[in-house]
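One chain given next:
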Amino acid sequence: MASEVRHMGQAKRRGSKDDRIAEALRRFLQEEDLSVAQESAIYSKALHKRDALLEAWQCRAEQVPTNFEGVGVPSEYICSQLKVFNAALKFIWKNDFTGACHNMSAVIYIILSEINVQSTLCIGEVKLNNQLFDHSWVEVGEKIIDAAVSLPLDHENSAFVGGPVFRSVDLSTNKHTRLHYGVESENGLDSIARNVCERDLAEFGDMQIADGADESILVWNMAKNLASDVGLSVCADNLRRKYGSVNRVLRSM
């Protein structure tokens, strides 16, 4: 009996923890002004509810054209961007693909190009308040597409800078992103980002191989696999031939 009571108590505590996480997630996705520190704490708890987090973000991404751009029915052009963005976001969070901005931005750029969405593959410094970090992202016109920013390399220590960004909207706050993309600091890019910036995509892929990256996350293989998720059948070698000479554009104000 004592054993049963103990197990019941443990189940109750687990349920209470789930309730707290669900409440944290609800607060995290509310349209209210929270400090970065508050958002970081809530975000850390919400990591345990990844499926719910993904579902909420993807739902908000679908609403961006209507809520922020005055579009009644999104065009096929915007819907195509949404499909690619959602596939990238799902991969990042399902595979705990942290600090993946250089790789994932290239993959998003490649797949967008394959479906005739013109975009620019960018690299530069990004600023939030007094925090600066090196980053890669994609621009469609003047709109930012940035799935990787939602799961930074140091996410376990609550290094939260914002939710995923679709067409310049932070899907966590449901407002225009607070991040300033392409700022310029005194020090500029660090050695890793400079290394990425100075290489075209073929050289970037070769650098991944030299660094011993798993085959599944090599840029050409990942682009092939995510393209399949949006209904495209492509060959990794063909992608390298088509996009290997592409360089990132360094953004700086």
The chain has nine helices and eight strands. Residues 2-28 form the longest helix (27 residues). The longest strand covers residues 131-140.
